[in-house]
Amino acid sequence: MLRLFFYIIASCLLGYLSYKFQFLYHYTDIKDYLMLLVSIAGAVFTIMGIWIAFAYPNAFLKLRNTENVINADFSENLKDTRRLEGLVLTIIQSIIVLSMIAFFFMAKIFFGKLNLYIENAAVIRSLSITYIFLASMIQFESLVRVVSSNIQFLNELHSRRQKLLEDRDI
After folding, report:
1. CB contact at 8 A, 38 and 98
2. Does residue 110 lie in a domain region?
3. Number of domains comprising the chain
4. CA angle 84, 67, 75 (to 5 degrees)
5. Residue 165, pLDDT above cutoff 90
């Protein structure tokens, strides 16, 4: 929650600076950037979904039977539970970013030609920068989670391999 607060403050500061210094950009530049964010969010969504399906197949089996969802114990220890929560949170963050981008495009369609937009273009551009930066920060955090999950997996893999080698020597 503290990170989200920081993201909002940083986004607002950037929006203010873009208004104060009249940062001008073209819609095509923003559109290209938003398409990049969509691609990243889709990739994160896919990678983390595969991770969950691979690492926690019992979770999916338990979710098939809706009567067992409430009583389902998805892991045997707290560490696995936290990891599963992190994977799911990463997927949720990507869904939020995709939703934010869809909302941005919808707003552009509905309000882009109105006098309200034309008369307040500088303010709306600054708000757009604020909004897009916030979405970017959320997506960046999910990318960090993807990298972190992969590093954790590799560390555990090496630890288990090392333990197997040590056990063979005994």
Report:
1. yes
2. yes
3. 1
4. 25
5. no
Q: Which of 16, 37, 51, 35 is nearest to 126 (CA)?
A: 16
User: What one-letter code names the amino acid at 65?
Assistant: N
SS3 category, 14: helix
- The domain in which residue 40 lies consists of 27-169
pLDDT tens for residues 40-65?
999 998 988 888 888 777 666 666 66
Domain assignment of residue 55, yes or no: yes
DSSP tag of 114: S
Where do the H-state alpha helices sit in the chain? 2-20, 27-55, 57-64, 78-111, 115-119, 121-169
pLDDT at 99: 96
Candidates 88, 83, 99; CA nearest to 134 is 99
